[in-house]
Design a protein that fits this description.
- With 484 residues, the protein is mostly helical.
- 74% of the residues lie in helices and 0% in strands.
- Helix 6 packs antiparallel against helix 7, helix 14 packs across helix 17 and helix 15 packs across helix 16.
- The chain starts with a helix and ends in a 9-residue tail after the last helix.
Length: 484
């Protein structure tokens, strides 16, 4: 709940902050690149480290504390950013800090619950994510309408309603995380090993340590060379054809992935495979089959969520309130209403979290995920068909159901397919399939809105709706052992 105060404030207000500080609408996606890149770098490292940590605070809880301290400081500083570059930099620090705390929370559910209870466990996590999101998303509106805090400010200045919301969020995040640290006990690595051995349902998911020998040094070097050359060639093409600079993120990412494989190949060749760097890279190439299939499901789900987060405010303020920018009449009202819409879909997510395990029990986890994502997809696709802003509450109900499912069912499916000893590592690697679609979205959504959609942000939400539905259909292809 505490972590979600930070994320919800970010998701519902950062577009507003960026626009206030001078960002154009097609620049917003690239400014959001901090979130996925920091998650890509931080989560697998923290997951690997927390798998191997055991001290007075426990296994996962030390990382809750480290991340909460930095995230709280970032939330207090962010709304005082005087320049766009500073706001983007603070977003980077904030996301890195929140990711340090967030990754172990996923692994904690897998640690603390047997397989049959994990759907309910992740659903309850969704419930408290919803509580934090509802309060944080609605905070600027509440401060403006209930406490007479100013929602307007001179050009280039972040309004008091947003600043005070971030102060509240920072205090709430730190308080909630401290509660978890002091009120939660963790099982020791020895206890977890004993539990896993005793549960026959998990025995088929065991991955022997010898799996690291399956990929040879030459395979790493060949694959790395191919990725590196592809990335460099693509970067050269972007430069020569004078394409949008955002595309360097994709080409550069391919080149970096190639370099990582080349380094892994050298480590393998020198028989230096016991270090964390090699183990994380090697685990990427030896993921359980179900995890590889879930990667596609996650890709389309989180592409849609990224579009929703960055374009809801521009879409609602422009299409439904007729305000092209922060200084236009109606922009502040529209931005606050977008915050209420975020609060509504999170409220729905909170309320439906209790029903997701029941839906999964009736239809199976995969069909339940398809149903939920379809409701969200239809909801987002209907945005241009609705002229009255207050009626946008209806499609946000479907988005809330989808969000509940995204936060619970894929993790329940995944936790049944990986061994307890590597729960943190694989939860961190699984985050790749959350952040990679966001990086791709950050690279291309601005181009699509500008060149394909004529600057109309609302059609990015329609695209997100289609992405939700594709994700739901792909869930049916995941082989997890359940029949539906």
């Amino acid at each position: 709940m505490g972590i979600q105060f930070g994320f919800a404030l970010q998701n519902s207000n950062i577009s507003r902050i960026f626009q206030t500080l001078g960002a154009n609408i097609d620049e917003i996606p690239i400014l959001f690149i901090a979130a996925p890149i920091t998650g890509l770098l931080v989560q697998p490292i923290i997951g690997y480290m927390s798998d191997r940590t055991w001290n007075k605070l426990g296994r996962r809880r030390p990382y809750f504390l480290y991340g909460a301290l930095l995230a709280t400081a970032s939330l207090f500083i962010m709304p005082h950013s005087p320049y766009l570059w500073m706001a983007a930099g603070m977003l980077w620090i904030m996301d890195a800090s929140i990711n340090v705390s967030m990754e172990p929370f996923r692994a904690l559910v897998g640690d603390m619950l047997p397989e049959k209870q994990r759907t309910t466990g992740f659903a309850m996590q969704s419930f408290f994510i919803g509580v934090g999101s509802v309060v944080a998303s609605a905070m600027p509106w509440v401060l403006t309408n209930w406490m007479a805090v100013s929602n307007d400010a001179p050009e280039g200045i972040i309004p008091d309603s947003v600043r005070y919301s971030f102060y509240f969020g920072g205090a709430a995040l730190f308080s909630c995380v401290l509660w978890t640290i002091f009120r939660t006990k963790e099982y020791s690595p020895e206890q977890l090993a004993a539990f896993e051995k005793a549960e026959s349902a998990l025995s088929a998911a065991q991955l022997p340590e010898s799996h690291a020998n399956k990929r040879t040094a030459s395979q790493y070097q060949q694959g790395g060379t191919l990725w590196l050359l592809t990335g460099l060639a693509a970067s050269y093409a972007v430069m020569q054809l004078a394409l949008d600079k955002e595309l360097y993120i994709l080409s550069g990412g391919a080149a970096v992935f190639g370099l990582l494989q080349l380094v892994s190949g050298q480590l393998k060749k020198a028989a230096r495979t016991s270090n964390g760097f090699f183990r994380i890279i090697d685990d990427i190439f030896h993921m359980p089959h179900a995890m590889k299939q879930l990667a596609l499901v996650q890709f389309f789900s989180w592409f849609a969520m990224f579009a929703l987060w960055i374009y809801t405010i521009p879409a609602v303020t422009s299409f439904h309130f007729g305000a092209a920018g922060p200084q236009d009449v109606g922009y502040g009202e529209g931005a606050n209403w977008a915050g209420i819409l975020f609060a509504i879909f999170n409220l729905v997510a909170m309320m439906t979290a209790i029903g997701i395990p029941k839906l999964a029990a009736i239809f199976g986890r995969k069909k339940a995920h398809l149903i939920s994502l379809s409701l969200g997809g239809i909801g987002l696709a209907s945005f241009p068909l609705i002229s009255a802003p207050e009626l946008l509450v209806v499609p946000m109900i479907g988005v809330g159901v989808a969000w509940t499912s995204i936060l619970s069912l894929p993790y329940a499916l995944l936790s049944s397919a990986v061994p307890a000893a590597k729960m943190g590592t694989y939860m961190g690697i699984f985050n790749f399939f959350i952040v990679i679609p966001q990086i791709i979205a950050a690279s291309i959504l601005g181009l699509l809105v500008r060149d394909l959609f004529g600057g109309e942000a609302i059609y990015a939400l329609v695209l997100a709706g289609g992405s939700f539905i594709i994700s739901g259909v792909l869930t049916l292809l995941v082989k997890t052992g359940e029949t539906s």
